Amino acid sequence: MAPAAASPYLRGVPKKPPPGLPTREQVLDFIATSTTPAGKREIARAFGLSAQQKIALKALLKDMADEGLIDSAPGRAFHKMGGLPKVTVLRVADVDEGGNVWAVPENWQSDAPVPRIRVRERKRGALGVGERLLARTEETGHGWTAHPMKVLAPAAEQLIGVLRREGDRLWLQGVEKKERREYAVSDAGDAAAGDLVLAEKAGRPPRITARVVQRLGDPFAPRSFSLIAIHRLGIPDVFAQEALDEAARVARQPLGEGREDLTHLPIVAIDPADARDHDDAVWAAPDDDPANAGGWQAIVAIADVSYYVRPKSALDREARARGNSVYFPDRVVPMLPEILSADVCSLKAGEDRAALACHLRIGKDGALKSWRFSRALVRLAANIAYEEAQAAIDARVARSTSVTPAKAALHAAANASAEAPAATGTPDHVQPDGKVAWDSALADTALAPLWDCWRALAAARDRREPLELDLPERRVVLDEKGRIMSVAPRERLDAHRLIEDYMIAANVAAAKALEAKKAPVMYRVHEAPAREKLVALKDYLATFDVAFALGQVIRPATFNHIIARVGDAEFRPEIMEQILRSQTQAYYAPLNQGHFGLALGSYAHFTSPIRRYADLMVHRALVSAYALGPGGLAGDEDFERAGETISQLERRAMEAERETIDRYVAAYLAERVGELVEARITGVTNFGFFATVEGVGGDGLMPVRDLGGEYFRYDEASRRLVGEHSGETYAQGQRLELRLAEANPVSGALRFELPEGRYGGAGGGGGGRARERESERRPPRVLKRRGRPGNIRHQGKR
Q1: Are 369 and 362 spatial neighbours (Cβ–Cβ below 8 Å)?
Q2: Where is mean pLDDT largest: 92-106, 115-129, 166-180, 581-595?
Q3: pLDDT at residue 98 above 70?
Q4: What is the DSSP letter of 782?
């Protein structure tokens, strides 16, 4: 038998192939064995093709791509369909507890599962999640391995924007507020004007152009605003097939034997009306133990995610790479596949669920007396919205003979919400279809004891004096078609505070229980403010004649007393915002530094393992420390490195959520461009001031060049701009009417102008230059597709 023909490319060193146009097999062989990226130019050079043959090669490669034989990453390199190039760009997706670095291809065009590639670091700890590298890949007996060749520039070299046509040219307008420059488009691919695209910068200064890598669609289509943030920040939003298969498999497993049966208790979950997952549920009752006379026993039941998501599993790798779920007005990017996050792990009324239960004994003064943890079986009595629970309690108060009608009315008014159902004397919440969402008897059997116990917890919290900053959170409400219904501050009810205090109690118990066993803890750390921040705060407060002594011991109560002294002054919100800015950012770490804001010595996140990886780690630590069964910690878990990673991922999620809200706010305000709006100055710089629309939010710039003809001096200590001749002042916290000049829904940016004849601006003595600008001012351009109204009109469901 004749020996098999040997490949002309041995050990990755290609021999010179025969001249002439290669066959399909020769192209595939060359691509598979080349030690460098194999693009059209490399193939043509290797086969010694003439200019005419290069044209034929281009057609051949296109045919091979159409036939599914090869695909190409953005750029010039080809590789076998479904395979990895020998040299390619990877993105670090995870660093596991053992310090192993795992990466995925930055661009994956195949329908096959995205491969996870182990990176052989030259220096341990040199690579972090999100970093890009050029690497040589090889397939080994245990999967793919990558050998780094070069760490590449951050993905910021790519940008997301909207294409705009001007004459016969296309321009790319970036979606970031700070990205004011537009780039000429050198290659639009299949994208057209008005499309949202992912592009790469090309060329060298001063002639930098943009090349479209991927068409993302219509920037005003349903869910595009969140899609922008997902792509811009590199948030993984597609699960590997391996993880999805594993999720389906573990979801079918039995709940496990030996669980403490709590199904007889009226445990309830109180969540936002639009909650996508339900991590926690609560129950309380008077304690019958004489040693705790007048006290309470309570249970905080948390979804037992560690039972389903085991260390080093495919699900665990996906959860760790995400770090947390990311919540947008129009979608959630979950940490776990939906079959777990929204179903099997989610605590739902009437369904048997696996839970990790925190059993608390609470003294009549609200102090935690003792705690224990158990794996439990729960069957919730109800899932109740915050507004429904509050309405039920208010109605119960109104019916109470011990409360006068006037006091009951005041109590209900204090907790009223625009979204709350009316308290009509019955706590039942009747849905539009006529069904009762939960049994009215729960107001007495479940809610009333919870509120009574909470009053003790609230009293203990008041004695502890944590930092109290009453800063509103914006809530975007969409209809079933995704259209913006409203943007308004989220109401704060007693029901919200109640759940917060039960969760804080369980988090403290989790930290202390692990400390008692000398087990590893993933603490939630919030350090005291840095001295330089306190000095800046002192200077700022002095501009309001508010004294602040630096020599004292700084506690959360110190800031509460400042707010109390300010009282109901008009500048109270600005003082609270500045106090918030003086605080450090909380993070996760195994070294306990306390939680300054909550005034707690030991604190760990335990109550949200569906949506936070830190909580899942705490669950595993408890399972291991108290021998509660399977799903404990892996023996080589590196808490320090994990804490750094999930802290970074948390900040990424916060940025994504914040900028998406800004885009929705800009879309909501787009129909008011040209109108006067009530605004408040939130920041002052030497180039202008930033203002936010009262009651709605969204920050916009008022450039100093548009403040009039005179020179404005910037006073850094008092954070104000002062006119050199007129003395006209623009200071942080100042309320004024501004004209909304531009609202860009794609970037989330707003721009303001001074109304004519106001504040020394155009037409009002602000100088000839301002009046001249007014006469030349063109109508503001709002970025939108032709024929599309300024506001969003989504046609798809959430």
Answers
A1: yes
A2: 581-595
A3: yes
A4: P
Q: Which pLDDT score, from 0 to 100, does residue 74 have?
A: 41
Query: What three-state secondary structure class fits 718?
Result: coil
Peptide bond into 779 cis (omega under 30): no
- Burial class from Cβ neighbours inside 10 Å (0-12, 13-18, 19+) for residue 567 reads exposed
| DSSP letter (8 states) at residue 33 | H
The partner residues of 456 in beta bridges, in order of sequence, read none
Integer Cα distance of 105 and 82 in angstroms? 12
- 3-state SS, one letter per residue, for 589-644: ECCCCCECCCCECCCECCCCCCCEHHHHHHHHHHHHHCCCCCCCCCCCCCHHHHHH
CA distance 299 to 361: 9
CB atoms within 10 A of CB 682: 18
pLDDT at position 296: 97
Higher pLDDT, 781 or 278: 278
- What are the tens digits of pLDDT across the range 742-769? 998 888 889 999 887 666 544 333 333 3
Closest listed residue to residue 355, CA positions, set 532, 544, 610 = 610
Q: Which residues pair with 174 in a beta bridge?
A: 161
| pTM for the whole structure | 0.73
- Longest alpha-carbon distance in the chain: 105
172 three-state secondary structure: strand
In the prediction, which pLDDT does 432 show?
43
Which run of H or E residues covers position 79? Answer: strand 77-80
What is the residue whose two structure tokens read 């339900």? 278
- Please compute, for residue 120, the number of CA atoms within 13 A of its CA located in the half-sphere on the CB side: 11
- Are 268 and 447 within 8 A, CB to CB? yes
User: What pLDDT, on a 0 to 100 scale, did the predictor assign at position 152?
Assistant: 75
How far is CA 186 from each of CA 78, 163, 243, 796, rounded to the nearest angstrom?
Answer: 21, 12, 39, 33
Cα gap 445→327, rounded to integer Å: 33
pLDDT tens profile 698-735: 888 888 888 877 889 998 877 889 998 888 899 888 88
Highest-confidence range of 272-281, 434-443, 763-772, 784-793, by mean pLDDT?
A: 272-281
CA distance 767 to 796: 50
What mean pLDDT do residues 176-183 have? Answer: 76
Q: How would you class 433 by CB atoms within 10 Å of its CB: exposed for 0-12, middle for 13-18, buried for 19 or more? A: exposed
Query: What DSSP string describes 316-352?
Result: HHHHHHH-B-EE-SS-EE-SS-HIIIIIISS--BTSE
Q: How far apart are CA 300 and CA 356, in angstroms?
A: 9
User: What share of the chain has pLDDT > 90, as a percent?
Assistant: 42
DSSP string, 272-290: -TT-S---EEEEEEE---G
Distances (CA, A) of 182 to 163, 209, 598, 719: 10, 9, 45, 32
How many Å apart are CA 683 and CA 689, to the nearest integer? 6
- pLDDT score of 77: 60
| Dist CA 374 CA 420 (whole Å) | 35
- In Å, how far from its chain's centre is CA 288? 43
DSSP-assigned letter for residue 155? G
